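Worked example 3 (structure in, sequence out).
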């Protein structure tokens, strides 16, 4: 009954959904390549691919794609001859997937959740197993995939505060999707508890850990870091502060803090990467209004940036740019956005500063604070003070802090292997491991 009502609502809302998709396309949120795929029209190359074992991995946006990279690598290592398809929802996710996910044979858009649309896509891909990164419960897709014999797992499962409220209210509609999933591998015990609260059968839930610990196993060498500094036109001895994944309202706070930092340490170079690149003009304005010159990464750099702000407006570079930082600020945390991932700077041995709104990153933020490699602030004054303190540490103190950050990452790695082990267990339950 719930699936019938859900589909009836989709039919009634379909004109609005189509207009929304047209608007998204006009704003660059839907690429030309993904437009047809969102309606279930996938390439004949996928349909005609002769490989028997077929794996579909779905990652919504940039963060989920990055969390999927280590899983994709392990899938390819385990099944070198499998067809691996990675779908994304956002244009940013697709762009990063094309750059960061060579283990995937095909990168596509994720189909809209109309029964006809998902069946069209599923008939082309014919997956033996579907792996959903974090939490993507679309009833028609999951129900149709299950009926076609696909095994289904949620990997790196996470339920935010907002997701918990929404999940409790929408249980009538999500039940068919939840029931179609074979196993939920959650990031933490708290996420496992929340999964049960939104209607997942307890016997399907596992506390597996976070695949983002596996994102970066090695740090760049000294020569590689020096080469990156030269590429970014950072003066040889300038301290570097990287602000990643910033959200609206935070750039003004960072600009105020930067002014205070440069009063104490004049040569500090600031690199800022907004969470959404379409906000580049807005971010630029936040700094120019306070007297700073902003230079974009996408334009040709010919001079040092010691007295300027470098705006990182290219996809997929932030993770490696953290490697040149003395300290990092991770955005979405000074305003109520729930916080962005701190794994990337910590994996580079870089101490992290963030605001008090880290409810979407509660486990890693708590772990990193407890280990003394992350520090919470609430305003521009505190942010400036913490950045000054971290930049002013002695080389020996910086080295110890870097080692602690790396140790936090390393002792929690191996999650991707456990996830693929579970995928192998699910596949072993099929008659011959492939259709």
């Amino acid at each position: 009954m719930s699936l019938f009502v859900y589909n009836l609502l989709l039919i009634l809302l379909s004109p609005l959904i189509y207009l929304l998709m047209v608007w998204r396309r006009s704003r660059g949120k839907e690429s030309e390549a993904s437009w047809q795929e969102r309606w279930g029209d996938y390439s004949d190359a996928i349909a005609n691919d002769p490989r028997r074992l077929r794996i579909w991995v779905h990652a919504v946006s940039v963060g989920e794609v990055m969390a999927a990279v280590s899983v994709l690598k392990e899938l390819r290592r385990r099944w070198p001859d499998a067809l691996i398809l990675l779908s994304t929802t956002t244009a940013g996710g697709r762009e990063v997937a094309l750059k960061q996910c060579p283990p995937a044979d095909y990168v596509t858009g994720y189909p809209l959740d109309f029964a006809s649309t998902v069946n069209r896509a599923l008939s082309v891909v014919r997956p033996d197993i579907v792996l959903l990164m974090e939490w993507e419960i679309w009833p028609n897709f999951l129900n149709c995939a299950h009926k076609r014999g696909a095994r289904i797992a949620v990997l790196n499962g996470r339920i935010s505060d907002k997701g918990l409220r929404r999940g409790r209210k929408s249980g009538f509609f999500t039940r068919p999707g939840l029931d179609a999933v074979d196993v939920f591998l959650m990031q933490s015990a708290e996420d496992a508890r929340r999964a049960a609260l939104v209607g997942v059968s307890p016997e399907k839930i596992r506390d597996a850990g976070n695949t983002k610990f596996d994102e970066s196993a090695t740090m760049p060498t000294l020569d590689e870091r020096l080469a990156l500094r030269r590429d970014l036109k950072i003066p040889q001895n300038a301290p570097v502060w990287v602000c990643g994944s910033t959200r609206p309202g935070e750039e003004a706070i960072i600009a105020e803090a930067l002014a205070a930092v440069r009063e104490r340490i004049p040569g500090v170079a600031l690199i800022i990467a907004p969470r959404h690149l379409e906000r580049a003009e807005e971010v630029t304005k936040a700094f120019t209004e306070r007297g700073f010159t902003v230079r974009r990464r996408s334009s040709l750099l010919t001079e040092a940036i010691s007295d300027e702000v470098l705006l990182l407006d290219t996809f997929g570079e932030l993770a490696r740019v953290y490697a040149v930082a003395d300290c990092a600020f991770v955005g979405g945390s000074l305003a109520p956005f729930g916080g962005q991932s701190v794994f990337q700077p910590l994996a580079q041995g870089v101490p992290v500063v963030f605001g008090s709104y880290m409810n979407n990153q509660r486990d890693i933020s708590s772990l990193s604070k407890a280990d003394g490699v992350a520090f919470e602030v609430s305003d521009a004054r505190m942010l400036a003070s913490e950045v000054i303190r971290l930049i002013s540490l002695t080389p020996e103190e910086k080295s110890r802090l870097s080692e602690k950050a790396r140790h936090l990452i390393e002792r929690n790695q191996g999650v991707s292997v456990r996830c693929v082990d579970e995928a192998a267990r699910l596949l072993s339950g099929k008659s011959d491991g492939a259709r």
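Notes: The chain has 19 helices and 14 strands. The mean pLDDT is 91.
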